[in-house]
Amino acid sequence: MKNRLKVERAILNITQEELAQKIGVSRQTINSIETNRFVPSTVLALKLSKLFGKSVNDFFELEVEEK
Length: 67
Known about the structure:
The chain is mostly helical. The chain is built from four helices and two strands, in the order E-H-H-H-H-E.
């Protein structure tokens, strides 16, 4: 799964730590999502969606082999 979390976070000019605090996870969780080592739960994806005011599909996309 590919994601645009790092790009979207940069657009808002917030750190991993700030984002983590806003959605109630650790900075390491944000880092793991951004580096594709962790696939977030539905709840976490929805929290990101709400915070950024964008669809979950704006953040996450299946790779060709996953479709």
